[in-house]
Structure formats: structure tokens, C-alpha cells
Design brief:
heterodimer, A: two-stranded antiparallel sheet, 12 helices, B: mainly alpha, two-stranded antiparallel sheet, two-stranded antiparallel ribbon, about 65% helix, about 0% strand, globular, disordered N terminus
């Protein structure tokens, strides 16, 4: 039983990272109807930036500065590459973000080099005990950080003028424009927020084992999370991210005992299996809005 | 969509004398290549004289090349041709039918492994059945991949747009995992297995014979496959099925309202596309001679997307141009260290050709989508239209 609980706790920790990344995807999707496939590169860039800043500034300040830096990078990318494509088919823009991802990742890999970089987190693989269940300290840190970030984010959307503007623009762009909202700055802000979230997620994912060139693949696991929750639901992204994390962790713990024929490391691809199953039953995810079709 | 969409299919009632004139095959007026007198003429495979001549010359040169070019060049061109088949396949589902697929690498892998398992040596460590006839394993590779395409298609009928893109992306990751773990078939990550063994009517295509070297023979195999499959795809695109694809791409609901069976045509699109991918996978790894399971990753899918986008969406000739461009790009970038002193050939150096290559894929995709959405094919039409009216501007 203890094994089960500690597996679920580890899943919640890892899942909260997927939740942050999924929020980035969903915020950009709600603002621009595009899935930003450059998020993996932004996440990797965030982790690398933090690993360079952690020396002079200390871990917490480095994470904040890293998030701001990547938010600016996201803003810059939106201004230069995505802006000329406003009004083009979403598929084209999505593929462009894929192009950004590939190009940006090569640049970031240049900063990683062939060895593993450490983000200088205070936890490493240290284990603690929570209600008698063994759990890695870094997983608790992930969960707490995510809880704080998400609370701030949801408060921002609910109580600030800018947040209201973003919700309005997501609801109906033209009406928002007519009310004097600058939709173009909403787009830019969406990219900035997603970049910041990705940087935080990247840093925490890299706690423990450190950053290598394969870290970006983790960001793609947020895709099953947003599909699970529905592309346009912020709450769905959080729920989806956490459940994907728990599923992955449970599969990692029990799959070799119960289904060894699925092969080693099946847990790594289990989110995609969950995604396929969910989509067959509910094509718009658990919380997504069903599109109304007009010819 | 019914069969009566072609205006010429049912000519109006005409007096007997006039009907005899009508029944004659419409001919082009001398000196007026741009003037079509019937719909059938417009839809013909090679509808203008310059096109007939140009295509004829290209095919002739392609068939003469084995005796003109060096073996190394031939093997590179062979890979480009095999890749062209894969690019045509992706263009059918993504370009013509508008269903975004990031899972092309998965279908390429299915084809490559089907072919190599069928033709493999039974005495080897990996699965092999010893059926070395090219025709058999090539068709089998296509058909097995097509079956998987049909399995995926139900997802495509339920999902649209970006949801589908993400699901097909998941397919690549699942496939990569399966191929890594199924070591009896694939040899496992880092080990790999030999590629398909091509024998045709008792001729061993993969070893030098009395008349032709192996590269020359494989080149000819690729060329014949490309011509046949390219022609089939071109015909599919101008048939009823092709029009249904275009209707689905442009507005799927409108298409279903006018009577296009969405499920049926999406299944067809995925099946045909996967068939092409399967053949391409089998052929590419015949030339390289070695299959490594981790090579069927997201980057491979992106390369094929790049071929389609750079070549030209919904064009067969564009797919071929794009595939040649992407396949020959590494050969070009390998020359860079001699020209630009900062770029190194050493993979561990801070700025090396491999990095430049990957960045170029990304930048080319972005650049083409922003500045030339119709790809190389669009550039070609612009050049053609310029010279058509030269020296006038229109």
C-alpha cells in the first residue's frame, strides 16, 4: 500500500510539471487557436538558462529570472515569426512553430554540450517522509511550486484587466477588438506566459538528474495531457497533466510485475496510449468544448 | 459526389451531323497551347506540348543516368527517389486530403520492417522468411502499412485538424517504443538489422553483376518504382477520389453535405498514403542496407513534412522536387566547411555541419511557409508564367 501511495505522490509531482506545460499550450491555443509545438524548445532553453544563472543568483532567483528571460524569448518569437502569419491556416502556423522548435533546440543544445548540466537545485534525489510515505523532496517542491503558479495565474485571469482582456479575446476576437482590446498584445502576452511556464517546468523537470539533450521529449507528454483535458480548458489542462503524471508513475511502478511483455520503459509512452483511448471515447477530451460546425 | 461532375460526360442533345463532329477527340489548336476546348483535355495527364516534351526528356535522362553518373551519385539519387515516393504518400493525405499527419515515420518503419523481415535470411538473428523477390516484398510492405493506415483512419474520422496532428505524433512515439523493444524483429536500439534483400527474376540487385554495378541496378529499381507510383498518384488525384479529397480538405462539412462520404474517403486517403510510405520505407532501407529502430523518430516525420511543404502542397511534381531537395541538402551542407571557415565537420565541435543541417530544416520550413507557401512548385510556376508572356509583364 505504501508503494502505491508513494507512486501516486511521485506521479503528482511529475504530473504538476505536465500541468504547467499543458497550461502553456492551452493559453496559446485559446488566444490564437494554434498549438505551439515550439514549447519543448522553450522549456529546454529555460532549464539551460537557469543552469547558467544559478551560480551568481542562487536557485530561487535564477528560476524567476529564467522564467522572465524565456517569457521575453517567447514574446520575441511571436513578434518576429508568428505575427506575419496571423490569419493563415492554423496548420501552417503549427508547422512553423515546429520549425522554430527544431532550429531553437539546436542552438540550445550548443549550450548544453555533450555532458549533463545541473540546475543547482537544493534537493537532488533526497527523500523525505510525508504522512509515513516515502517521497522525493523534489516532487513535493514541484507540486507546491505548481500550486502557487497556478493560483497566481488563475487570479490573474480572474481579477486583472489584462486577464479579462485575454479571456475576452479568447471568447470572441472581433468583439474584443471592438471593445478596444489590443488583441495583438494578447497574442504576445499568451506566448510570454507560456514561455515563462515552460521555463519553470523545464527547471523543475531537470532537478535531480540534470539537463541533457533529450529533456525536450518530456514537454511533448503535455500533449496527451491537453488532449485528455480538452484543448481549450485551463482546468482541464491541470487535471489532465496530473492524471497523466499519476498514470505514468503507476505504470512505471507496476508494469514490470503485471505486464512485462510491454517491454522496458513502457511508462514513457503510456501517456500516448491513454491519449488514444480517451480520444476514441471522447473526441474533444474530458472538458473541451464541442465545436459547433457551420458550412 | 456523383459521376456526372465532368461537363463532357453527358453532352447535350445534338443533331446527328453535329454529334459526329463532337465525338471526334478534341484537339489542340496549332499555336494555341493554352486553349482547351474540353474538360477532358484540361485534365489530361500531360495537357500541353511543352509538358509532354519536358517530361519525356526528364524520364529519358533519368534512365540514361546510370551510364553517365558515378555510383556514389546514383545511390544518393536513388535514396532521393525512394524518399519521393514517401513524400508523395504524405502529400496525398496531408496535401490533397488535408489530414495533417505527423506519423509518417511510423508507416515508413512498418514498410521497412515488413520488407526486411520477408526478405531476410532465415538463419539470421532477426526474423527472416527468405522471400527475396522485390515485387513480393515491396507490395507486401505497402499493403501491411496500408492496413495500419486503415487502423489509424477511424481516429481521423473522429478528430479534426490539430487533434489529429497530436494523435499521429503520439503514434510515432508508440512506434519507436515498440521497435526498440521487439528485438526479434528489429535487433533492438543500437544494434539494428540488415535491410531488405532485393532479388528480381534471379538477378541479385544488391551485388555487382557482369553488366551493371549494384548502385546502377538499385537506381533503376527506384526509378521504375517512382515512375509507376508517381503516375498512379497523379491519376488518383485527377479522379473522382482526388476531387473528393480536395472537397474534404477545403471544407469537410460542405463536402459531406454535397454527398462525399467522409469516413470512406478519409480511410482511403490514409490507406493510400500509408501504402506509399510503406513502399518508400522498404526502398530507402534497401539502398542504405541497414535499419536502426531509433531512426524512425519525430525528426524523420518532420523531414517528410518539410519535403511536402518545400516542394509544394498537393502537387506530385512538387513532392518529388521537395524530396530531392531535402535528401540532397546534407550533400550540400557537407561542402560548407570548405567555404565557411567557422563550420566544422567534427560532430563534437561547437558549430558543425549536423547542427547547420538541422537548423536549415527548421528555417527552410519557416521561410517557405512565410514567403513561398506554394513551395518549389510555386517558384517554378512563377518562372514559367514570367517567360510565357515575356517580354510583356502579363
Amino acid at each position: 500500500m505504501k508503494e502505491l501511495f508513494s507512486s501516486i505522490l511521485a506521479g503528482l509531482g511529475q504530473g504538476s510539471m505536465y500541468a504547467l506545460l499543458a497550461l502553456g499550450f492551452v493559453i496559446i491555443y485559446k488566444a490564437t487557436q494554434v498549438i505551439n509545438l515550439a514549447l519543448p524548445a522553450l522549456m529546454l532553453a529555460g532549464a539551460v538558462l537557469v543552469s547558467y544563472l544559478v551560480g551568481p543568483f542562487g536557485f530561487i532567483l535564477a528560476v524567476v529570472l529564467g522564467a522572465v528571460g524565456i517569457a521575453l524569448l517567447g514574446l520575441g518569437l511571436e513578434r518576429t515569426v508568428i505575427r506575419p502569419m496571423v490569419g493563415k491556416p492554423v496548420f501552417v502556423v503549427a508547422i512553423i512553430t515546429l520549425g522554430i522548435d527544431i532550429a531553437l533546440r539546436v542552438v540550445v543544445n550548443g549550450f548544453i554540450g555533450t555532458d549533463v548540466r545541473q540546475v543547482g537545485d537544493p534537493w537532488g534525489f533526497a527523500r523525505g517522509s510525508l504522512f509515513g510515505v516515502t517521497v522525493q523532496e523534489r516532487h513535493i517542491a514541484m507540486f507546491v511550486t505548481t500550486a502557487i503558479v497556478i493560483t497566481v495565474l488563475f487570479a490573474f485571469f480572474k481579477y486583472t484587466r489584462l486577464g479579462l482582456a485575454m479571456r475576452a479575446a479568447a471568447f470572441d476576437q472581433e468583439t474584443a477588438l471592438a471593445q478596444g482590446i489590443s488583441v495583438s498584445s494578447v497574442f504576445a502576452l499568451a506566448w510570454a506566459i507560456a514561455g515563462g511556464l515552460a521555463a519553470v517546468a523545464g527547471t523543475f523537470v531537470a532537478t535531480g538528474a540534470g539537463i541533457d539533450q533529450q529533456l525536450w521529449i518530456i514537454a511533448l507528454k503535455a500533449l496527451p495531457a491537453i488532449i485528455l483535458g480538452g484543448l481549450d480548458s485551463l482546468g482541464g489542462a491541470v487535471v489532465g497533466g496530473l492524471s497523466i503524471g499519476i498514470v505514468e508513475s503507476l505504470v512505471a511502478t507496476y508494469q514490470l510485475d503485471f505486464a512485462p511483455w510491454l517491454g522496458d520503459n513502457f511508462s514513457v509512452v503510456s501517456p500516448y496510449v491513454v491519449m488514444l483511448l480517451v480520444l476514441l471515447v471522447r473526441p474533444y477530451g474530458l472538458f473541451g468544448t464541442r465545436e459547433v460546425e457551420r458550412v | 459526389m456523383t459521376g456526372s461532375t465532368t461537363p463532357t460526360a453527358r453532352p447535350p442533345q445534338t443533331p446527328p451531323g453535329e454529334a459526329a463532329v463532337r465525338r471526334r477527340r478534341p484537339r489542340q489548336l496549332a499555336g494555341r497551347p493554352g486553349l482547351y476546348t474540353s474538360y477532358a483535355q484540361h485534365l489530361r495527364l500531360l495537357n500541353t506540348r511543352p509538358k509532354q516534351i519536358a517530361v519525356g526528356v526528364i524520364v529519358l535522362v533519368a534512365f540514361a543516368l546510370p551510364w553517365l553518373a558515378e555510383d556514389q551519385t546514383l545511390s544518393l539519387l536513388g535514396v532521393a527517389m525512394a524518399a519521393s515516393i514517401g513524400a508523395i504518400g504524405l502529400n496525398i493525405v496531408t496535401g490533397y486530403a488535408g489530414q495533417v499527419s505527423l506519423g509518417h515515420a511510423f508507416f515508413l518503419a512498418i514498410g521497412a520492417y515488413t520488407a526486411s523481415a520477408l526478405s531476410g535470411d532465415p538463419a539470421d538473428d532477426t526474423i527472416g522468411f527468405g522471400v527475396t523477390n522485390v515485387v513480393v516484398w515491396l507490395l507486401a510492405a505497402g499493403v501491411v502499412a496500408a492496413l495500419f493506415g486503415v487502423l489509424v483512419a477511424p481516429l481521423a474520422t473522429r478528430l479534426r485538424g490539430l487533434y489529429l496532428a497530436i494523435v499521429t505524433l503520439g503514434l510515432v512515439f508508440l512506434g519507436e517504443h515498440i521497435f526498440k523493444e521487439w528485438q526479434d524483429l528489429t535487433g533492438g536500439a543500437g544494434v539494428g538489422r540488415p535491410g531488405p534483400v532485393p532479388h528480381l527474376f534471379g538477378i541479385e540487385l544488391n551485388s555487382a553483376g557482369d553488366v551493371l554495378t549494384s548502385d546502377q541496378k538499385l537506381y533503376l529499381l527506384m526509378l521504375v518504382s517512382l515512375v509507376v507510383l508517381g503516375l498512379l498518384a497523379r491519376n488518383l488525384a485527377r479522379s473522382k477520389v482526388g476531387r473528393a479529397f480536395a472537397a474534404i480538405r477545403d471544407r469537410d462539412i460542405a463536402a459531406s453535405v454535397i454527398g462525399v462520404n467522409l469516413t470512406r474517403y478519409k480511410v482511403i486517403a490514409f490507406a493510400v498514403s500509408s501504402f506509399y510510405a510503406g513502399c518508400a520505407g522498404a526502398l530507402v532501407y534497401t539502398i542504405t542496407g541497414f535499419i536502426e529502430p531509433t531512426s524512425f523518430n519525430l525528426l524523420l516525420s518532420v523531414q517528410y513534412i518539410a519535403m511536402v511543404l518545400i516542394g509544394g502542397v498537393a502537387t506530385i511534381s512538387g513532392s518529388i522536387m521537395g524530396a530531392f531537395f531535402i535528401t540532397l541538402l546534407p550533400a550540400l551542407t557537407r561542402q560548407l566547411p570548405g567555404v565557411v571557415p567557422l563550420i566544422s565537420e567534427d560532430a563534437s565541435a561547437p558549430l558543425n555541419v549536423f547542427q547547420v543541417e538541422t537548423v536549415l530544416y527548421g528555417l527552410l520550413i519557416i521561410g517557405f511557409l512565410i514567403f513561398e507557401p506554394r513551395g518549389l512548385y510555386g517558384i517554378w510556376t512563377r518562372i514559367r508564367n514570367y517567360w510565357k508572356a515575356w517580354p510583356f509583364s502579363y
